[in-house]
Amino acid sequence: MISNPDLVIVGGGSAGMAAALEAKKRGIENILILETDPYLGGVLRQCIHTGFGLRTFSEDLSGPEYAARYIERIESEGIRYLLNTPVLEVRPDLTVIAISKEEGYLELHPKASIAATGCRERGAGTIAIPGTRPAGVLTAGTAQRYVNIEGYRPGKRVVILGSGDIGLIMARRLTLEGAKVLCVAELMPKSGGLKRNIVQCLEDFDIPLLLSTTVVEIHGKDRVTAVTLASVDENRTPILEKAWRVECDTLLLSVGLVPETELFSDAGAAVERGNGLTVDDHLMSTIPGLFGCGNAVKVHDLVDNVSLQGEKAGGFAAEYILGGK
Amino acid sequence: METKHITCTVCPRGCAITATKDGDVITVEGASCDRGRAYAKEEMTCPKRMLTTTCKVSPALSEKMKLLPVRSAAPVPKALLFDIMEVCREVTVEKKVSIGDTVIPNVLDTGVDIIAAAAL
Amino acid sequence: MEDVIIIGGGVIGCMTLRYLSRYKLSLRLIESHNDLASGATMANSAIIHAGYDPEPGTAKAYFNVRGCGMYPALAKELDFLYRPLPSLVVAFSEEQMATAEALRTRGEENGVEKLEVIGRERLLELEPNISDEAVGALYAPTAGIVEPWGAAIAAAENACDNGAKLSLGEKVIGMEKAGDGILVHTDKADYKARAVVNAAGVWSDKINDMLAPHIFDITPRLGQYYLLDRRTSGLVNNTLFACPTKEGKGVLLSPSVHEKLMIGPDAKAMPDRDLTPTDSAGLAFVKENAARFLKCPLPMNLNIRTYAGIRPTPSNGDFTVGRTPVEGFYNAAGIESPGLASSPAIGLELAEMIARDLGAEKNEDFNPFRRKQIRLNRLSEEEKKELIAREPGYASIVCKCEKVSEKEIVDCIHRNAGATTVKGVKKRVGAGLGRCQAGFCQPVVVNILARELGIPKDQVLYDDPGSEILLEKTK
User: Fold this and answer.
1) Does the model's pTM come out above 0.90?
2) CATH fold label, C376-459
3) Tens digits of per-residue pLDDT, C304-361?
4) How many CA atoms does the CB half-sphere of C299 hold within 13 Å?
5) Which of B8, B52, B119 sits opposite A50 (nearest CB)?
6) In angstroms, what separates the C-alpha of B89 from chain C's closest C-alpha?
7) Catalytic residue list contains C414
8) Which residue of A24, A222, C201, C208 sits 20 to 30 Å from the alpha carbon of A267, by its own alpha carbon?
9) Whole-number Å distance between alpha carbons of A221 and A218
């Protein structure tokens, strides 16, 4: 049976693990990480590319390697975690309701909690792309899972909308795995991705980056058969007279990430317009004792910064529990 | 004389570097660190990239993990990326590995090993 | 030879199948799509209309009012998602108040109970966010909201539990009279039946014309919607309609049984009966017309999906239900709105008519109850405790947004009329209809389908044939 923890961390990804380690360091003994998935490390498991850990470890690590370093420390510090344990509800008094394959129904009353639930991708529905809704329209992160974890190509002729980093990374990854990436269309006049990803993922493979361009229609009944692209004017309005059609079987979307905070906003915690958990200088939400870190607060470019904020949140939560603040 | 504008990919900062090759002499401007300067020189001679991909895992070894993430232990010549992908595609991991263990030694005689990026 | 073949696996065909399964009859339903509820049933306003809209004396009026009254008990028997929810037809002028009054009179003539025309004060109590321009409304408390595809699938499953058979993914290409029965040719097989029911939705004019004299044409129409995430709950408490105009019922705002907010539809002609594309002009129209209901702006940033559904609008303006000049051939055709509300009444009436014509006896073993679906996200705290103690496997969540467990997905695959596709899983347990729109759970659902159906992952379909999600192995 799980004894009642002092600190519950919702989410066992990079933010949650860093928070747990720091809280432990600050003297909190009874910590519990709750993770929905059957593994720690969150999305890092499928981010097999390098570019992680340059700040934290001064090394260029892949996602699984970066996660493994934290998982090892969680294990060696003896920090408890439960996998296959979705949190169903967080209440304003910090009660956490979760269900666990191993431990059954859990009602926990910690002294503090940390929201480390990460983010989700915006999909075709949220951006309301006109046209049909066939198979072959998927987010870059979903495609990443299909390629890197399941070992399947989700498409052979691919158009990517959005030049966020995951989209760029997947352009390279799909190309290396034998798909033809026809172009990356970006609504804005400038890519939001890291420069090095534009070089390494697009320029290296001669994949055109079409700025001020968007998808105005998806075609195909059962599977994508084509998309219509159009340039946009300075108000981001598509210039439909100059639209053109690209035959493809897949539309990959990399059009932004949204902090996953519904569990906490349902409890009454304030969120920003972009859906990030509202936090103060001590990373505490509007619910006393509920802290936030990582992509649940703000979508970060680099995992190193997620870990850094996780650490801070772990420290603030420890102070809170120990009565310092 | 040959001049190239290079976006440094060593770190996320992405410095804009101008490299000029005159005979055997390469001059580099705009880099903020030695690693960047070295990178720019390499871009002028033999561009190299890290390669990350996966190798099949024998079903007898792990039911859960169908693929093992792997990477080159050091950057490999860019021109060989697709050839190395083919080599990785043909390999099936048959025994337990730890992070950093060699999966394919000296891939295509580059002097670089393909190593495990996760434990099995 | 079957006793009865039903052509069309939408809510009309499925309800008819279910009520027919109360008799000692051999039954088969033929559906051209890979799954039930793939046409008009899949994407509509999901409202059980009270019945004040149709002209008195029409088939629409008759079936609507009866069907609406059947839903509460039927939802319990078949365990589909349904909730009574009053409709409000909001008036924005005194002239429109007169329309509301006329609707009340018409509704009462149709037999709708408890209709009231309410003033602004009462409207504000019911809808605190209502626009300052709203002056009153018609209040129809007998209306409801439903999961349309869930109702259809539940009815078909119950029919199959009672012996009915399904032929999915088979398109009827011709029919002919043959001796004591009717021959039905599909693209895969030939069937013979003593009676055939045309419940073919947007195709019901064509199916009718295969055997019976031409009576109507279907003009397919598209309606487009936005779906806003559940954080909108409380914004709108009832289904809000505008006063009907010549163009139809117009744009509505309604909570859904999944605690989302549905906004739509527009209406436009759609020549291709198999395609349901959205377009930016239609979506803009919906947004603009929906905005006038409330005094606060609609939180369109919470939009999680836009979609369109097809309607079989018949040229004769009414449902065509019952016998045709051809013996043994029955129509449940041209069923547009309020077809969803009408479907149990249409099914019941047709089943009784056909049983009488065929001289069928009641099936004494008929079980009206569908085996209950465990829906983790709808259990009370106590029920959750009890379930997890008994079956900890329910903690294995696949759809994080809607909290759907792996066990629920496996169960929905192995039921009668079970899921065989990713969309089929979404329709039966709601995995993927939440805010991430299956971004996280689709790969897991693909794995579960492949495992449970014993097929390779690259043969798992999203919906109809040709909708493979994965194209090939990378290595």
Assistant:
1) yes
2) Arc Repressor Mutant, subunit A (1.10.10)
3) 999 999 999 999 999 999 999 999 999 999 999 999 999 999 999 999 999 999 999 9
4) 17
5) B52
6) 6
7) no
8) A24
9) 10
